[in-house]
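G., the chain you wanted modeled:
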Amino acid sequence: MFDHVEKEDMKSGSMATINMQFNTLTNEVKVSSDALDVKGEPLYEFVMNTDTGVMRQTKRDALSSHEKVVERELEPSKFSAKTAAPAKEQSTFDESTVIDQYDDLDAQRDLAFKIVYFFIVFIVITFGLLYVYFRMHQSEVKQEQERKQRASRAKNAQFSNLAAGNEDTFFDFLVGQMDYEKNPVNPKANPYFFNKQAEKQCESSSRASSGRFDHRQNEGFGTNNLDTLGE
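Predicted structure as tokens:
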């Protein structure tokens, strides 16, 4: 900054302390030594105008009023390069920071979308497999019911109609309300159970009535009466 500072002044401490002033109105930077001459002016003074690039250096004698002024102007290319370089670096830094933040947000958004997409596909596949299993089970149950219906159609038409009307749905399969005929939890709550119980009671009552009728027919003497007594 001070090209013409002498070694004696450096040793004497004239440049031990310097003062710096920034004038925002005139855009001037002023650097002066704390040591003063006989008039109270700083021994060394440096002034630069940041708008024009003009620099002025002043050296004064400590014991006299003699002063030496050196004024020079920076080249426009060097001055513009020095003043514009920090602004360019700052702009580039800010732009890169914004780009990095945008890339981070974009990566987080892609990750969240992939997680949500995975769960949606997993749920769809799970319900698809459950529906396929339900259709297979329903086909087996339907075949079993048709076989039972053919076997019992001549014997009990009402039971066949009841079994044909109670067809399970996929919703019943999901909530666990199906397979009434083989319900291991509460078989007495099934309509098939009540129907079979009523059927068994009718058969037992019919056999009892037929037995009593046969007993009445065999009342009297003869071989039939002996057979009845033997029973």
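The radius of gyration is 56 Å.

Shout if anything looks off.
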